[in-house]
Amino acid sequence: MTKLPVRGDRSFDRLPASGLCMRPNPVAVVNLPVPPVALAVDDARYEPLSWISRAVWVFDIDRRCVHWANAAALNLWNAESLIELRARDLGADMSASVAQRMLQFQQDFEAGPARFDEQWTLYPKGQPQTLRVAFSGHRLVDGRMAMLCEALDERNGDPASVRSVDALLHTPVMITLYDWQARVLYRNPAARAKHPERIDQGHRFVRDEDFRTLLSQLLARGQARLVAAVHTREGERWHEVHASRCRDAASGRQAFLVSEVDVTELKRTEARAHHLALHDTLTGLPNRHYVLREFGQTLQALGRQRVSAALIFIDLDHFKTVNDSMGHAFGDQLLLQMADRLRTVVREGDLVARLGGDEFLVLAVLHDDDGELAVLTQRILTSLSAPVTLLTTEVCVTSSIGTSLFPRDGNDIQTLMRHADMAMYGAKDQGRNAVAAFTPAMKAATEHRMSLENELRHALERGEFELFYQPKLTIDNRLVGAEALLRWRHPERGLVSPAVFVPVCEEIGLIGDIGAWVIESAARQQVRWRDQGHRLQVALNLSPRQLAGTQLLDTVRAVVASTGCDPRSLELEVTESMLLGNDLHTRRLLTQLSEMGFSIAIDDFGTGYSNLAYLQRYPIRTLKIDRSFVQAIGQSSTLTEVIVMMCKALNLHMVAEGVERADQLAWLAERGVHEYQGFLFSPPLPVAEFDQLLSVTDARRVA
Fold it and tell me: What is the C-alpha radius of gyration for the chain, rounded to an integer number of angstroms?
């Protein structure tokens, strides 16, 4: 929109209303004293204006109506009489942006006398009529500010031009023209409503360096873009700012045009997502991602200062027993209590985090090493072991604490965590409720790890791995599928938890062969159930190494060919973290698998970075709501509600994990979740027991 020259630093745009719309004329605005015309409710006061051949009328800004009009104006407005015209409510369908602009114009008239020559579009009885109008502000006898309008000539306004000016009024984008001294030449209504009065562009930025960046980009490229904090009438806000060099159409001098969009809510959402990615959703403490990044940076700074520190690894003793006997809700409350106690007992400056489950971490700067550390760990031990009363039930939970020293026991966070973890297991070996420090003697644990690795290398060829299957049901309890879960049946130790051996397999490179075995075994099992008349979809988890490798596509093709399975009956699950970075290889691989017929699912959604962009970049069909959100139902269901609404908006198939209670299932059913799995129906089962479950299900169906 062309800038209207203005008096002083004020910017005058245009005054459209319901029935009023004007387009600025590029001619200069004349700032002249207003003719001494007395305006009053008494029509006799308008006698000097009545004989003017051109249309003249007074618009009441406050009441959104014509206050007075001469005969030519009545004809222009297609009105039978002044009474009929004054009765028209020109603000009946006035938009919020027009109403806002009207108030701005009234403020301009209040500031001092001014006369303008502009092009308007009027809408007498709904019919558009474009004409050039001179207008100025005048007071009515009751002191209110009105606007005197005089039609100068009639014009045939170009529709595109008229519409573009109208769009400039209604757009929420803030548009401002500045000279090269950063002084305001023009502001559209949105900018005027948001920008503080009497402040130039340079002082609008909260940070001076942002304005310098804007100018340097303008000088170098003629254009600039940045997101910055700015001062507004609403306080500090975040704006996405675009600027480009141009000329002032009124003076021909160099200028720059700035458009701004308020992105404060987006920034807040990003900050919230960033916070959630780095903090535990239950306790609010920093999580493992935070530890690896921020604790590591802290250690680097301490190393440069030659300051020592201790990493304190805390594991609650027998917490699983409390969880299993009292329920996860009780366990969560206990974890909250433990987190609060840790926050209280550590010293100012110590960093506290929750690694997951019942594991916590403290990074403490030391000055006299052993003595200071001993006092702190004993204080933590005593605080955590004090009785906790929850729901009238008193429980005592002790802790096992392992410590490692920086830089003596390691120079990086991973090494120190590993050594503190070893020390923690040493405290458990001492009978729990104890503190143990990492020592070279703990190399025995490393030797045990090496033994575990060796056993795993032979476990596949010895047939020690097997698949358990957890039933997957529709929300109305029809058995429609199963998730294949890897188990290791050790010849001496029995079933070994995947949490123990899967990370080791990942680290030593066995997961590729084991993953291929899982895919083939799950496919053969699905075919066997299909031949028995069971239409089940089998889901299986892909590991990060499988997804990053080059053999997965060949593996699944070979499995389909050798087993005769229908890819549409297999679902491949990946985690959020595996999709970060928008990796081209990952996207291409998942697209090829999807084109083959495999369904792609996001597992444990909400526990990672929760970057919603990948849901559109990748061929995702199913989203599995992590059990932590399901467990929160009835306590804090806000995030679960958001996930469900998002899935509906993106038309994603929803599966809830970890359903353990009937009220959780009812909540999910009410919100249209499609399927669920969890202990409410069944834990993961060996194939034989799953077959028995199918038989029972078939019997019920027949009955």
Answer: 36
Among 183, 189, 231, 195, smallest CA distance to 9 is for: 183
| Dist CA 574 CA 544 (whole Å) | 8
Distance in angstroms (rounded) separating the CA atoms of residues 268 and 52: 58
Element (H, E) at 130: strand 129-139
pTM for this model (two decimals)? 0.43
What span, in angstroms and rounded, lies between the C-alpha atoms of 109 and 116? 11
Helix, strand, coil distribution of the chain in percent, nearest 5: 45, 25, 30
Residue 100: Cβ within 10 Å count: 16
Integer angstrom CA distances of residue 472 from 272, 327, 479, 482, 513: 32, 22, 6, 5, 27
Number of neighbouring beta carbons within 10 Å of residue 660: 17
Separation of alpha carbons 404 and 365, rounded Å: 12
Q: For residue 649, what are the contacts with CB-CB under 8 A and spacing of at least 6?
A: none
Cα–Cα nearest to 195, from 132, 249, 258: 258
Instruction: Return phi, psi of residue 694, to 5°.
Output: -65, -40
**Residues 415-461: tens digit of each pLDDT:** 999 999 989 988 988 889 999 999 878 867 667 778 888 899 899 88
Given the structure tokens 């942002």, which residue do they identify?
A: 210
Residue 287 reports pLDDT greater than 80: yes
Reply yes or no: is the peptide bond before residue 407 cis, omega within 30 of 0. Answer: yes
CA distances from 290 to 8, 286, 347, 452 (A): 53, 6, 20, 29
Task: Report residue 655: phi and psi, to 5°.
Answer: -130, 125
Owner of token pair 């020390």: 423
Tell me how far apart the alpha carbons of residues 339 and 98 are, in angstroms, rounded to a whole number.
53
Q: Please name each of the domains of the chain with its CATH number.
A: 20-157 (3.30.450.20), 174-262 (3.30.450.20), 280-438 (3.30.70.270), 460-702 (3.20.20.450)
CA distance 497 to 303: 38
**DSSP β-ladder status, 622-625 and 653-656:** parallel
Q: Phi, psi at residue 79, to the nearest 5°?
A: -115, 140
Give the tokens for residue 323.
Answer: 């969880």
Q: How far apart are CA 571 and CA 537, in angstroms?
A: 7
CB 599 within 8 A of CB 572: yes
Residue 618 Cα distances to 281, 293, 543, 606, angstroms: 26, 27, 17, 17
Distances (CA, A) of 409 to 125, 417, 435, 437: 85, 10, 16, 10
Residue 639: count other Cβ atoms within 10 Å of its Cβ. 16
**Helix residue ranges, H only, 597-637:** 614-617, 627-631
Tens-place pLDDT, residues 125-162: 878 888 888 878 878 888 898 888 899 876 665 676 66
* Contact call for residues 483 and 492 (beta carbons, < 8 A): no
**Dihedrals phi, psi of 389, to nearest 5 degrees:** -105, 120
Q: Which of 247, 244, 243 is nearest to 228 (CA)?
A: 243
Give the three-state DSSP class for 405.
strand
**How far is Cα 245 from Cα 239, in angstroms, rounded to an integer?**
19
258 CB neighbour count, 10 Å cutoff: 24
